[in-house]
Design goal:
This is Terpene synthase. With about 80 residues, the protein is an all-alpha fold. The chain contains three helices and no strands.
């Protein structure tokens, strides 16, 4: 914000655009064949998804109570296969 002289909402909006473009790049790369094991790539992608959930709206890493609802939904309200 200080470097570019923009307001907080403008900075947040720009960061969200950067994140959205990064996910587009990740999804495109997932569709391409690679020499790396698909299982390893999926694990790395899952870590990226995890961090997306942890930091999407607030810092759930240092404030784990913020992620409580998401974790409960994941384990208690899971979708049956």
């Amino acid at each position: 914000m200080n470097q570019h002289g923009v307001s907080r909402p403008e900075a947040i909006s720009e960061l969200l655009k950067i994140i959205e473009n990064a996910w587009i790049d990740i999804n495109e790369e997932m569709m391409r064949p690679t020499m790396i094991s698909r299982d390893l790539v999926i694990r790395i992608l899952n870590f990226a998804c995890l961090y997306g959930v942890i930091y999407k709206y607030n810092d759930s890493y240092t404030q784990p109570e913020c992620a409580k609802d998401s974790i409960i939904a994941l384990y208690e309200d899971s979708i049956p296969i």
